[in-house]
Amino acid sequence: MTAVDERGVAEFFEGFEPPDGLKVELLRGEIVMMASPDLVHNLIVMLLGRQIPLEHWYSLQTQDVDIVDEASEPVPDLVVVAPEILPASGRLLPASLITMVVEVVSKTSVERDYCVKRSIYAAGGIPVYLIVDPIMAQCVLLTRPEGEGERADYKGQEVKKFGIPVLLEELGVELDTTGFGTLPDVKPHRFPLP
């Protein structure tokens, strides 16, 4: 897609109102629509958000993220930001203000969460990307973003099974994963890639 086409898609996306019950994101010039998430997903987001200390961090849901130099406006399941640097208002939160993003994997989002968004969030310089995967009962903690565009990636990666705490050093939090549920009867996948 050319730069002109991507600007046109971004302008269209700005005014687009999705039908009720759909979540919509712009990922590298493509508009992606998803059905409302599973109860397992929502409970994980709730349990995770409750572990982020409100006196130091705000954990926001359904917050659109602005990634500079990307035709992307992802909507992570959770965005963690220091309250003192938040703008007064606005739909798009600049990636440069964000300390951590969280995506909870669904059966239709595996490749987007593990590959496409990994690259997008790294390109945005977001220090921590946490993938919570109820299909594989694991958390993947990605840190130290490097690079630009589609070549951007996280250099640090830790995989922890549910039930094992995940240390979020940047937040000063040890995440308890024992209450995270799993999605039954969903075919396992091969991510994260070696």
Task: Explain the layout of strands and helices.
Layout: H1 3-15, E1 22-27, E2 30-35, H2 39-50, E3 58-60, E4 64-66, E5 78-81, E6 92-94, E7 98-104, H3 110-123, E8 128-133, E9 138-146, E10 153-161, E11 166-168, E12 173-175
Parallel strand pairs: 4-6, 7-8
Antiparallel strand pairs: 1-2, 3-5, 5-7, 8-9, 9-10, 11-12
How many individual helices? Answer: 3
Percentage of residues in strands: 25-35%
For the largest beta-sheet, the strand count, sense and barrel status come to:
6 strands, mixed
SSE string, helices as H and strands as E = HEEHEEEEEHEEEEE
The assigned structural class equals alpha+beta
Query: Which stretches are low in confidence, meaning pLDDT under 50 for 5 or more residues running?
Result: none
Q: What is the overall silhouette?
A: globular
Q: How would you state the average pLDDT, rounded? A: 88
Biggest sheet strand line-up: 3-5-7-8-9-10
Helix percent reads 10-25%
Query: What is the CA-atom radius of gyration, in angstroms?
Result: 16 Å
Rounded to the nearest angstrom, the distance between the terminal CA atoms is 30 Å
